[in-house]
Amino acid sequence: MCGIVGLHLKTQNHHDALGRLLNPMLDCMETRGSDSAGLAIYEDPVPVGYLRYSVRLDGLDSSEEIKSNVATLVDELSEDLASTVTCERVRPDGAVLVAPEMVDDVTSCLSQRRPGATVVGFGRHIEVVKDVGTPLEICRRHEIENRTGFQGIGHTRMATESAVTTDHSHPFAPNADLALVHNGAFSNHATVRRRLAKEGIECVTDNDSEVTARLIGRELGLGASLEVALKLVEKEMDGFYTLLVATGTEFAVVRDSFACKPLVVAETDDYVAVTSEYIAMTSLPDIGSARVYEPMPGEIHVWGR
To answer: Can you give 200-213 as a three-state secondary structure string?
Structure first.
């Protein structure tokens, strides 16, 4: 059992409050999973030709050590890439770097300079935060209340089929500005993982949700729409699930054909909110006047900017 939350802002009214709105939603879902938690937050884009890289740097003990290490890393990557690299935010687990959109080159240089570094998400809009611990602990550690943006998705995990580690926590973000959170379980993920591996698409973990994220990422990379990619999930993956998927331009949910896993949607003129349980959205503004409903089995709902 896991908890999912998401907030897609239709207007500018709450952009400055995105983190403050997401924080209590995620905290409320601790009852559905307290092993680990994470969020993908979508902000205004960085300049064309550049991407945000959410980088985890393990083994650094103090904030001063992290700041010093990140400053040195920025200089090193700028030299290696012969291009400007900047630090947008120093975090307790690393940093958000703004670097050229040459993803393979950036990750290669990063692995050479910091062999233990991990890029947990990248894109013009996205920042990914994921960690082991309770939602409240993680939100406080990363100061989620201060985040701004136009949408965010979050997850609280109760591990059932793979290890409790930061890598296994959600969201999974394998492509630029793509993030997925999942409540449920897929029974044939090993088979699909092997198929993807034959195409050169490797998974980092043995988590079934990562397989699904990479399957969707493959379809988007081939030019499919998000809705078409989610339809392929129903065709290729066996299991019970609710998925919440976001990109830089879209926000979507889908339930399996039996609707075994809960999902509630609330819509107002200002936002679309989705949660595993209604109680997680009761802190939102004007929730009393929202149109609230549960998507039907197999339904795909997509909202765009």
So the answer is: CCCCCCCCHHHHHH
